[in-house]
Write a structure and sequence with these properties.
By secondary structure, the chain is mainly α. It contains ten helices and no strands. 27% of the residues are buried.
C-alpha cells in the first residue's frame, strides 16, 4: 500500500479530478433516475407534466453524456499517469542503486516483465473502473436512505449478509492467487537465470537441474491456477444469485407499499434501478478484492524511487 499511496501523492491533482468527475457523473445519473421516477409519479397521479420538466430531463440526459465522457477521459488519464510514475520510479531506482545494491539482471528482468507489467496493466485498465463502482455504491446507499429508510434497509440488511460470504470467498481466492503468483515468479527467475548464466550452467551440466526446478514450479502453478478458475466461477455465480435476493425483497415489500398507498410507483422504480448499482458491485466483489490483493502484492515487490 505504501507504493500505491506514493503514486497517488505524485499524481494527486489528476486523482482528485478523476474522483470529482466520478462523483459528478454519478450524481448526474442519480438525478436523472430521480426525475424519471418523478415523471412516473406524475403519470400515475394524472398530474400535469410541464414543458420545462421535459426540458430538464433532456438537459440531464446531455449532462449524463458529458460527465460520463469527462469521467472516462480524466480517469484514464490519471491512472495512466500513475502507471507512468510507477515505470519511471522503477527505472530511476535501478539507475541510482549503488554497486553493493545492484540487482541481478535476471531479477530486474523478472520484476519488469511480471510484477511491473501486471501492476501497470491493472492501473491502466481496472483500478479506476472499480473505484468508480464503489463510489457509486456509496452514493446510492446515502441517497436511498434519504428517500425511504424502510426500503433502503430491505436492500442493505441482506446485502450485509452477502458481504460476509464475499469476505470469505475473496480471502480464499486471494490465497490461491498469491500461491500461483509466487510459483510463476519462481518459474521466471529460473528461466532468466538460465538465459543469463547459460555458459556456466552448460559447463556444469545444470540444464536438467534447472528444468526440474522449472517443471516443479510449473506443476504447482498450473494446479493453483486451475483451482482459482473453478472457485472464481463458483463464487461469482453464487454471488450473482445471492445479489438478487435484495431485489426480490424490494419488489415484494415495495409492491405491498405501493398497493397500500404508502409510496408511488415512481419511487419503487427509482429504488429498483438504484439497487442494480449495488447488485453489480456485490456480484464482482470477490474478483475485485482478489485482483486488488494481487495488485498490491505486485506493487510491494517493486522498488521505486
Amino acid at each position: 500500500m505504501a507504493n500505491l499511496l506514493l503514486l497517488i501523492k505524485r499524481n494527486k491533482i489528476w486523482v482528485a479530478l478523476g474522483i470529482l468527475m466520478t462523483i459528478l457523473s454519478n450524481l448526474s445519473q442519480m438525478t436523472f433516475v430521480y426525475l424519471i421516477g418523478k415523471l412516473v409519479n406524475h403519470i400515475e397521479s394524472r398530474s400535469s407534466i410541464t414543458l420545462s420538466f421535459i426540458l430538464l430531463i433532456a438537459l440531464l440526459m446531455a449532462s449524463n453524456a458529458l460527465t460520463l465522457l469527462l469521467k472516462q477521459y480524466i480517469g484514464r488519464l490519471s491512472t495512466e499517469k500513475m502507471a507512468h510514475s510507477l515505470r519511471m520510479g522503477y527505472a530511476k531506482r535501478l539507475i541510482k542503486k549503488t554497486v553493493k545494491e545492484k540487482t541481478s539482471a535476471s531479477l530486474a528482468m523478472s520484476v519488469a516483465q511480471n510484477e511491473l507489467a501486471q501492476a501497470n496493466n491493472y492501473l491502466s485498465n481496472t483500478l479506476f473502473d472499480i473505484a468508480g463502482m464503489l463510489i457509486m455504491a456509496v452514493l446510492v446507499t446515502v441517497y436511498l436512505l434519504l428517500q425511504n429508510v424502510l426500503l433502503t434497509l430491505v436492500i442493505i440488511v441482506p446485502t450485509l449478509l452477502i458481504l460476509v460470504y464475499v469476505s470469505f470467498s475473496s480471502r480464499r481466492l486471494s490465497t490461491i492467487v498469491s500461491l500461483a503468483q509466487n510459483e510463476k515468479n519462481k518459474m521466471n527467475k529460473v528461466a532468466y537465470s538460465l538465459i543469463h548464466a547459460f555458459p556456466s550452467v552448460k559447463i556444469f551440466s545444470g540444464e536438467k537441474l534447472c528444468l526440474n526446478a522449472y517443471n516443479e514450479s510449473f506443476d504447482v502453478w498450473e494446479k493453483q491456477w486451475k483451482k482459482m478458475g473453478r472457485l472464481s466461477a463458483l463464487y461469482n455465480t453464487l454471488s450473482g444469485v445471492l445479489s438478487r435476493i435484495p431485489l426480490l425483497l424490494l419488489l415484494l415489500i415495495g409492491g405491498f407499499m405501493v398497493i397500500r398507498g404508502d409510496i408511488l410507483m415512481g419511487t419503487l422504480i427509482v429504488f429498483v434501478i438504484m439497487q442494480g448499482s449495488l447488485s453489480e458491485s456485490i456480484m464482482n466483489l470477490p474478483n475485485w478484492i482478489a485482483n486488488f490483493k494481487v495488485f498490491t502484492t505486485n506493487l510491494s515487490r517493486i522498488d521505486i524511487e
